[in-house]
Amino acid sequence: MRGGAWIRFGIGIGIGIGAGVGGRAAWGAVLGVYEGVVQDLIDELGRLPNIGPKSAQRIAFHLLQADPADVRRLAEVLLRVKETVRFCELCGNVASAQRCRICLDPRRDATVLCVVEEPKDVVAIERTREFRGRYHVLGGAISPIDGVGPDDLRIRELMTRLADGTVVELILATDPNLEGEATATYLARLVKPLAADGALRITRLASGLPVGGDLEYADEVTLGRAFEGRRSLDV
Ligand code: ZN
Fold first, then answer.
1. Which domain covers residue 13, as residue numbers?
2. Across residues 60-78, what is the average pLDDT?
3. What is the number of structural domains in the chain?
4. In the list 34, 38, 49, 109, which could disulfide-bond 133, CB 3.0-4.6 Å?
5. Residues 62, 130: one domain?
6. Which residues surround the ion ligand 1 when the cut-off is CB under 5 Å?
7. What's the gap in Å between 198 CA and the centre of ligand 1?
8. pLDDT tens, residue by residue, 119-128
9. Which residue, of 65, 84, 103, is where some domain finishes?
């Protein structure tokens, strides 16, 4: 129910207090409408990742009290980002054209391909300035609990990219947590036939990354070192 009762309780108190000032009928009319849309806002915010019911309430009430111009700007940028930003047809990174700027950059090494879960991981690795190859964004990690299987990720696209033999090193840079490890193991087994004749090296980032964590939260030095010390995967 996502804290709906709490909000209704809070508004109930508001009616009680407000009745003495503005009259019960006026408050009731305003709050009757208000309650629904506030709850809708809280429900929508609560659907965002890492936003629990309490955070959703806090953000909703912040927005209610915020300057209308600020809220309008937020609403406009939300719409604009969905209308203008898309995903690179080759690597799956965010892009403002059909292909992202990394795929379009001829100075990037096409023989080294780094597989990550999300576009935010590309940003994290780019910050280290250790990597001059290209990326492949899976769009998540294998997670049976969340109902995410291999077919839900951009694995078929990865196999297509590997087919022509241009890539000589495949770096599996999925998150150092349960899902990320499972995904790396799955991919390593899947591409093993390509690596059998030594034409493709499969590597995984070195330890030193916080286990159980997200790649994006690693500091630049740690992530940079993990890149330098990446090791071959035996599968
Ligand atoms: Zn791209």
1. 4-84
2. 95
3. 2
4. 109
5. no
6. 88, 90-91, 93, 100, 103
7. 26
8. 999 999 999 8
9. 84
